[in-house]
Design a protein that fits this description.
Order of helices and strands of chain B: EEEHEEHEHHHEHEHEEHHH
Structural class of chain A: mainly alpha
Strand order of the largest sheet of chain B: 6-7-8-3-9-10
Shape of chain B: globular
Shape of chain A: globular
Largest interface: A-B, 13 and 23 residues
CATH class of the domain at 1-79 and 190-262 in chain B: Alpha Beta
Largest sheet of chain B: 6 strands, mixed
Structural class of chain B: alpha/beta
CATH superfamily of the domain at 1-79 and 190-262 in chain B: P-loop containing nucleotide triphosphate hydrolases
Number of strands of chain B: 10
Oligomer: heterodimer
Number of helices of chain B: 10
Number of domains of chain A: 1
Radius of gyration of chain B: 20 Å
Order of helices and strands of chain A: HHHHHHHH
Number of helices of chain A: 8
Largest sheet of chain A: none
Helix content of chain B: 40-55%
Strand content of chain B: 15-25%
Distance between the termini of chain B: 40 Å
Helix content of chain A: over 70%
Strand content of chain A: under 5%
CATH architecture of the domain at 1-79 and 190-262 in chain B: 3-Layer(aba) Sandwich
């Protein structure tokens, strides 16, 4: 059945809805930043919790290594093939190594690693923390005098901030190796020449950009994952856990893309890095 | 010991506690009764500092705790043990690790000393040989017992029980009630039990309070509660308490029973 509302009433309702959505979004962003700053403060407060950190480092790093390597390798292969095909008409197919190297180091290495970890680790952090929230385990921690941010968020945050750049190094090497194998085996490109070109185009500044991006992505993934896990209400139940987990993966991916643009703008446009 | 003074709490425009005041004397087992959603569990969360009241004061001995900083509040929390409705055991840890958690976080005890405390607390709740099990491997009753052992690990002065018998079979409920009584006698702790299970309430209470619409409407020893003439309280007791403890001489109760009988004959439904 169709309802016909007067235009004023409809636009008024829309305005109220928009206002409420905007209010909720701003409030969520504010709370997420609060958790982020609380985490930064707690990082520098003793104790160090090395045992918890080691556990998270293994979980984030070691368990994600194979999938990061495979993703990086195939991304490099695709870049190699596409690069060669696109450059050949201009008779500059010799630059394919440069194309693969610069793309993988500055952009795709950190990006692919971050995407893999957002889906794999960010979502799992949210699922774990939101389940703990629903089953009152986070309340139990607090009642026992343990700060949940220090105990749960800090090790996950540090693990992501440390392991994302580490995994990015692996993914970057895998990407260059993938590009090398694809180009050398499928096209008439000399392997030695490819490696020389990579060496010539691999700058310290580029590696630094890659690591800065990866660390920022890692912090964003952990911050979003933990915030979404903590933000669920205790009455949310299994449905709430599912919604929070999906939301975490989606927001992390968007945050990575936005952050990538901001960092590109700051590092290359404002600071003028190569 | 704990004094709750004029506590107000609203969630999303819905008023839950409306100026609630309550005294929890040292060494007593106070049962807080009330219908679902009347603010009983919220009160426990306010006492433990998990949520902040909109207004009012919570006194723990001579300290007003509702506005304490985290560090000072944590010092008070170490004197309080809490058994959560769902037991809230840490899934990723064994039973022993759950019980030793607070000791591990706040003391410098060795592993052997902690193991000794774990064994001692488990025997207090009549559980043995479960140290290495995970919470998922325990039954509902066992989880509550482990939750209780964890609450006792730091030798608290106060134990808060949030719906300790909810979701348990009658035999296990009875065992948990017995356990609460035993712990009260053995350890001389102050206990606060939040429940709407009247069997459990009259089984463990040395004092009782009834909350309705966010306010205390009755307070006293179990006998005084049975003789109280508040109709809301009597209705609650009539539908929940075991028949043998009901005070049939209470006129308010008689009126309810009369109305119920007439309702059964189709004249007046409650």
């Amino acid at each position: 059945m169709n309802h016909h509302f007067p235009t004023d009433e409809r636009s008024g309702g829309f305005r109220i809805l928009l206002k409420s959505r905007l209010h909720n979004t701003l409030s969520e962003i504010g709370k997420a930043w609060t958790l982020f700053f609380q985490t930064l403060v707690q990082i520098f407060r003793p104790p160090l919790q090395l045992e918890l950190l080691t556990k998270q480092l293994l979980l984030v790093g070691f368990n994600s290594l194979s999938v990061v390597l495979v993703s990086g390798f195939f991304t490099g292969m695709v870049l190699g093939v596409q690069g060669y095909i696109q450059l050949k008409p201009f008779a500059v197919e010799g630059s394919v190594a440069r194309f693969v190297c610069v793309s993988v180091v500055k952009e795709l290495g950190p990006m692919i690693t971050a995407f893999v970890l957002a889906g794999r680790i960010g979502a799992s952090i949210t699922a774990e923390l939101s389940t703990m929230k629903v089953t009152e385990q986070i309340d139990a921690l607090e009642v026992m005098g343990t700060n949940p941010v220090k105990y749960l968020v800090v090790p996950r945050f540090l693990a992501c901030a440390i392991m994302l750049p580490t995994l990015t190094i692996f993914s970057t090497f895998a990407g260059i190796a993938g590009g090398f194998i694809a180009v050398v085996s499928l096209f008439d490109v000399n392997g030695h020449f490819f490696l020389l070109e990579v060496q010539r185009n691999l700058f310290v500044a580029s590696v630094l950009v890659s690591l800065i991006k990866a660390t920022s992505f890692g912090m964003a993934i952990a911050a979003v994952g933990c915030y979404k896990g903590f933000s669920i209400s205790a009455a949310g139940g299994a449905e709430g856990v599912g919604t929070a987990t999906t939301g975490s993966a989606v927001i992390s991916l968007i945050a990575i893309l936005v952050l990538d643009f901001v960092l590109n703008h700051i590092l290359f446009n404002i600071l003028g890095w190569v | 010991m704990i004094v709750v003074k004029d506590i107000w709490k609203t969630f999303g425009g819905k008023s839950v506690l409306n100026g609630l005041s309550l005294e929890i004397p040292r060494g007593e087992t106070l049962v807080i009764m009330g219908r679902s959603g009347c603010g009983k569990s919220v009160l426990l969360k306010i006492i433990t500092g998990l949520i902040a009241a909109d207004a009012g004061e919570i006194w723990f001995d001579s300290t007003e705790i509702s506005r304490l900083k985290a560090k000072e509040l944590n010092a008070i929390r170490q004197k309080i043990g809490m058994l959560f409705q769902s037991a809230a055991l840490f899934d990723s840890m064994t039973v022993a690790e759950n019980i030793a958690f607070m000791l591990d976080q706040h003391t410098k005890l060795t592993q052997a000393e902690m193991r000794k405390v774990v064994d001692e607390k488990l025997s207090l709740v009549d559980l043995e040989g479960v140290q290495e099990l995970r919470p998922a491997e325990l039954s509902g009753g066992m989880r509550k017992r482990v939750g209780l052992a964890r609450a006792l690990a730091f030798n608290p002065e106060v134990i808060l029980y949030d719906e300790p018998t909810t979701g348990l079979d009658p035999v296990t409920c009875n065992e948990i009630n017995q356990l609460i009584r035993d712990l009260h006698e053995k350890l001389q702790v102050t206990s606060v039990v939040v429940t709407h299970d009247m069997h459990s309430a009259f089984s463990v209470a040395t004092r009782m309070a009834m909350i309705h619409e966010g306010k205390q409407i009755a307070y006293g020893a179990p006998d005084e509660i049975l003789n109280n003439d508040d109709p809301i309280l009597q209705q609650f007791i009539l539908f929940g308490a075991p028949d043998q403890i009901l005070n049939m001489e209470n006129p308010v109760l008689q009126e309810f029973i009369g109305r119920q009988d007439r309702g059964a004959h189709g004249e007046l439904a409650l």
